[in-house]
């Protein structure tokens, strides 16, 4: 029997003492209010056991982690048609890279970089009757938590400064790969990124990816084969141009966000989430990556 609580307590207590904690994202001004001293870890096992350390119940801005949740909702509507508008190859580029310029056919490299996530957002704006409310309801349902909400200050902050995302959306539109208004798609995208969730809520929401598409309440939201695909995309594309490094050091599919969150999982076993707002040079949580590397090293459990 592995002492999960002891392991995550040790990881938390040792890493919180590190002097180098990374740099909080400042390009979205509202995120810069976060402290590098926040640090939480939450482990949700498929059998229902849970373990928490540090700030595991404090909500924070999930940012790019939302791209996986949006992808799962779009897949529920579009199934395999989704891949006609977005590819599944790692980009090797930062999340905000305008890689469409290289492709010249308007098909983003994958759904977890910004240009790909904007195409997914466009699909949801098309399919959902009240896009922002319906998407929030979906996240609340899969996490089994009605308290989850948008942080409208964060959404407004990114709307004021998100020039790169405006450029990407306009570029997609020029390639006819956005069906809705640029403004509507960006408004939805800035809100999906501005959902606040804690490590505990994120681990619950990602349960369905570790459980063949069935959420914590045992409802099938996506087919087993699509859960497999989403995990594959997380492994190859979940950490921007550091996806190889994350697979190498941690060995789990996962997704990070510039709010400092990371969620990773082992199918049929567990979901583990971390939050530490200080980022490394590639925009991934510095302590979070170290914590997850130590977790898979000490427990000797990873997909490899
Ligand atoms: N909303 C952020 C952006 O589009 C998300 C980036 C991230 O978390 N990597 O820039």
UniProtKB/TrEMBL annotation:
One of its GO terms (biological process) is L-glutamine catabolic process. The keyword Cell cycle does not apply. It catalyses: L-glutamine + H2O = L-glutamate + NH4(+). GO terms for molecular function: glutaminase activity. The keyword Hydrolase applies. Its EC number is 3.5.1.2. Substrate binds at residues 64, 114, 158, 165, 189, 240, 258. It holds the Pfam family Glutaminase. Keywords: Acetylation, Hydrolase. Gene3D superfamilies: DD-peptidase/beta-lactamase superfamily (3.40.710.10). It is an enzyme of class 3 (hydrolase). Belongs to the glutaminase family. PANTHER family: GLUTAMINASE. HAMAP family: Glutaminase (MF_00313). Homotetramer. This is Glutaminase. It comes from Cellulophaga lytica (strain ATCC 23178 / DSM 7489 / JCM 8516 / NBRC 14961 / NCIMB 1423 / VKM B-1433 / Cy l20). The gene is glsA.
